[in-house]
Amino acid sequence: MLSSCGRQSSSRLGQISRHIGHQRRSLVGYTKTQLPLNTGTEIPALGFGTWQDKGAQEDAVAEALKVGYRHIDTARVYGTEPGVAKGVEKSNIPRSDIFITTKLWNNSHHPDDVEKACDASLKDLQTDYIDLYLMHWPSPFARSDKLMPKKDDKIVAGDSDFVDTYKAMEKLVESGKCRAIGVSNFSKAELERLLKETSIVPAAHQIELHPYLIQADFAEWHKSKGIHITQYSPFGNSNPIYDKGENLGKFIDDPVLKDIGRKYSKSGAQVALAWGIAKGKSFSNCKYLSVLPVSFRHPHNTSSGRCLSSPDSSTGRSVIPKSKTPSRIKANFEGDFKLDAEDIHKIDGLDKKMRFNDPSESFGWNFYADLDGKQA
Ligand SMILES: NC(=O)c1ccc[n+]([C@@H]2O[C@H](COP(=O)([O-])OP(=O)(O)OC[C@H]3O[C@@H](n4cnc5c(N)ncnc54)[C@H](OP(=O)(O)O)[C@@H]3O)[C@@H](O)[C@H]2O)c1
Model-level pTM? Predict the structure, then answer.
């Protein structure tokens, strides 16, 4: 991995670090777990997902913010950016107290389209910056105003290279439109190539990960690279859109999770969230970003010795449960609690390499080729 700092001119770096200097590193008054990103800022470990139920998201987001969530996950393709903006407005919580992630959709991978797509998200989110902007998938669709450009009912693939797309995203960090960038749904080989050929180490990789799809080696690899993992679909097949493993039963009802839950007076769902957060945490002392290998450092981070809350080189793991149901929104927020090591270990044993989200066929791209759960 080439040092990103080495590739930036000092004046460009100076410009960027001045910009970063104005950013708040962590959310003031937030009492739940926050985890360091390789940018030097922090992300609340418990976020709020907004995929599906578009019409319900304004109220759901407002409710989530009222309950205490300060990390909201959306995406251009979900159509929920306007609902998120309205929910934030309704909540009366200042924008600066909320960590917002959104994602670049596949129809905008051409480098000339990336800034335009980001601007559209900024407009719908009614904000002038995005905390974390992710490339939703490595796979390009044809350039189009349509989210799903189709011919004969099949999605038309594009020819943009995800490396070029990411390089265009890097410019959004320089301009201040995005405070951090990252990716989602990449295989290990795709991510390795990205690390070799681009300047900014992704701050986060958003992937399907839950107790039935643990991906222990891949998760460890992220730690070694200083890339935060955001676990999507943390309740796996509770999402009704997933049709794999129909006879499996909902994993949040798995007897092991429920049994562990009884010990803490928590549900299986809450235990699954606590497990995700625990797996990304450090188990030893805090370290200083300045002593991390240079390959972990973000080109914008000039920090010299800020104590990170993470123990080793890990930048932690966040979980982003979605719910439109007020009682569940509240209950899920109580999923940020400490599990004993023996319970974490028991949950590790539940792995079924069961992947629920794989649109390879419809997107015309062989996703996750080198990852667990490909054949499930
Ligand atoms: N990057 C990507 O490609 C990608 C892919 C998938 C998801 N995501 C992100 O990750 C977020 C979460 O994933 P997800 O939406 O797939 O699924 P999820 O959060 O794992 O599960 C959501 C489903 O579980 C139900 N639920 C929520 N809390 C519950 C509880 N305490 N007990 C029982 N059921 C509960 C919800 O129902 P109700 O809403 O009816 O309460 C909903 O049907 C998404 O919303 C999105 O932001 C990203």
Answer: 0.89
